[in-house]
Amino acid sequence: MPRGLNDLNLIGHIGRVDDLRFFQDGGCVLSASLATEEQYKNRSTGQKQKDVQWHRLVFKNSLAENAKEYLKKGSKAYIKGAIKYRKYTDKNTQVEMTVAEVHVKHFINLERAPEVNNPQFEPVDGINAPGDLQSAPSFDPFNDDIEF
Question: Which residues of 85-118 are buried (b: 16+ CB within 10 A; e: fewer)?
Fold first, then answer.
């Protein structure tokens, strides 16, 4: 019997995709963000509410290279991974911080590729183009000084 399980499945829209970072040993890493959204009904007002959560994604080696090629801002994606916590010291305040990251084991780009010369191609889930993220707020979860 396993001692524990750290398995996470997410479906959402890609936010930021950073540049690949290469290491001397030949490995590479890619950081990205994913917005997930849940809707619920507010009990007191009866109105629909949206709860958007941003997740930090970490892709390594060949998975990082594939993610850089196939995942673009606004792309809908399925992510399978494990949550890991990392500590770092903030450059400005010298305070030790903890960040949660999803270390990706597998991903699937859920965007439907447009057919060549097909004027009937319709946007998927309100996304007109990979660079046009309409369904998630314009929050940049990587706009901080976290060292990698």
Answer: eeeeeeeeeeeeeeeebbbbeebebebeeeeeee
pLDDT digits (tens, 9 = 90+) for 8-63: 999 999 999 999 999 999 999 999 999 999 999 888 888 999 999 999 999 999 99
Name the residue with tokens 């970072």: 21
Instruction: Indicate left, alpha or beta for 68 from its phi (over 0: left) and psi (-120 to 50: alpha).
Output: alpha
Q: How many CA atoms lie within 13 A of 116 on its CB side?
A: 0
Which residue range forms the structural domain that includes residue 100?
8-109
pTM for this model (two decimals) = 0.71
What's the rounded Cα separation, in Å, for the pair 139 and 36? Answer: 13
**Per-residue tokens: 132:** 């046009």
Cα separation, 62 vs 29, in Å, equals 9
* Residue 3 lies inside a defined structural domain of this protein: no
* Residue 123 falls inside a structural domain: no
How many structural domains compose the chain? Answer: 1
Rg of the chain over Cα atoms, rounded to whole angstroms, equals 18
| Amino acid at residue number 19 | D
- Kindly state whether residue 115 falls inside one of the protein's structural domains: no
